[in-house]
What does this fold into?
Amino acid sequence: MPRQQAAPTRAAVTASTPDTETADTKAAGAEAPDPKAADARPESPAGRPDEAPGASSVAATAALLRRAHRAARRRTALLVAVLVTVLIGLLLASVLLGGLRNIPAADVLPAAFGQRTGLADYVIHRIRMPRALAALLAGALFGLSGALYQRLIRNPLATPDIVGISAGAGAGAVTVLILAPGIPYGVEGAALAGSFLLVGAVLLLSRRGGRVDTFRLVLIGIGMAAVCTAYVNYLFSMAGQHSIAQVTRWLVGSVSGVTWDGVTTLAVAFAVCALCAAPLGRALGAMSLGDQLAAGLGTRVSAARTAALLLGAAAAAMATSVTGPIGFVSLVSGPIAVRLVGADRALLLAAPIGAVIVLGSDVLAQHGPLISPVPTGVLTALIGAPYFVWLILRRRQGASS
It folds into this structure.
């Protein structure tokens, strides 16, 4: 008996007859998928149509942040280039302006590198070049020191000038200048020791509940600066007339009379401080969010704070030991850098801004009409003191720091 052929199933019929499929599908009321419908789906900002709305928003935000970061880097690089150009112009002005009529023009550049003798060597290489380079390097150290303290304490008034670090360095340097002026590198060492001693005292006295209270730190620093000033006045009462005249000019702050030994000291100090400040930038940025959040991000808050305080004190002390306490440079440099590139990159720009301020003030102190010659510190005080008063007046009523 022949086996009865099985009836074809609906699936087999559908697979073998496309026309029948279309008819069945239409009969069921279903519509065939339109290939153009997928293309008409709205795309995400990142250009991926299958991306979730939340992921699209995150990608767009990340793209905006990358563009802002690149724009900030370009702006910082442009400002650094402008500042370097201004510094080169001021350096040439400091060396070339005034009194070169008896020096042949062809001897000026070789004399700057010590390749000439006689009058060109004396005027260019021994007097003007050390003075210009000392102003540039000391300004960079003051600017870096102020930016470190302002970034750490988050207060534009918290600079080595205001919290007494410069006063401690000056007290140590004056001690050696009056009591033991013949000690090699005694002024530099005493200035460094004085600044570190004052930092230790301010840190110890400003602790409250195991933490450093920045408000107490500023006030105690101002008080300690007054103690150092009284100590310097006591040393003046013991000194002779010659020592008093020498120290008085040094305390005003001036780069006249700086030798190549002083320039070497400043150059080495700036190189060391800049190298040490670079790794601290990220830690200080995390600490600007608060100590607890910074610790949660992996920052060693106490170590970073102590390192920043000692580094800022060392920078201010080394500049002070060579040029004297040139006031208000550290106060002005940091806020200018913040306004130009923001707080995150201010540490990088504060040093060249401080160099421009001190070198420009020194050029004006040498050649300015009606006022020259005056010590450089007089002009920086004329610039910085009104700014300091303005900072005090613009503080909101009830501000705690």
